[in-house]
Specification:
By secondary structure, the chain is α+β, with helices and mostly antiparallel strands. The protein contains one helix and seven strands, in the order αβββββββ. Strands 1, 2, 3, 4, 5, 6 and 7 form a seven-stranded antiparallel sheet that branches. Strand 4 and strand 5 form a beta hairpin. The longest helix is centred in the first third of the chain and has 18 residues. The protein binds 2-acetamido-2-deoxy-beta-D-glucopyranose (NAG).
């Protein structure tokens, strides 16, 4: 007990912290071909954050997409007339919000 226990706890927290680190794609403008045209980078999700992805489309045609790390992401699709907003939120693997 004592020192060893503390070391064990420290080790465990490092392992857990490492396992939880999640890298997401970040882009403020993904064009219809799926290519990031503006602000391409990656972000590391902080506590409570996940990777989010939004695809805006009309009918079958994608207009643009966005990717980020977010603590308030949604898994939802909203349709307004023929504009579709498709929100996705994921944390199952790194870069899971790739478009
Ligand atoms: C969204 O769906 C994913 C995959 O099913 C799930 O892991 C995640 O927790 C959900 N996020 C929210 C905010 O509902």
């Amino acid at each position: 007990m004592g020192k060893h226990f503390l070391l064990l706890l420290l080790g465990l927290s490092l392992v857990v912290g490492f396992v939880q680190a999640l890298t997401c794609m970040k882009c403020s403008w993904v064009n219809p071909a799926g290519i990031c045209e503006k602000g391409k980078t990656t972000c590391v999700a902080k506590d409570g954050e996940q990777c989010d992805r939004l695809i805006v489309s009309t009918g079958r045609d994608m207009l643009f997409g966005q990717q980020d790390c977010s603590s308030r992401c949604l898994n939802n699709t909203f349709i307004h007339y023929n504009i579709k907003l498709d929100f996705l939120c994921c944390h199952d693997k790194n870069l899971c919000n790739t478009i």
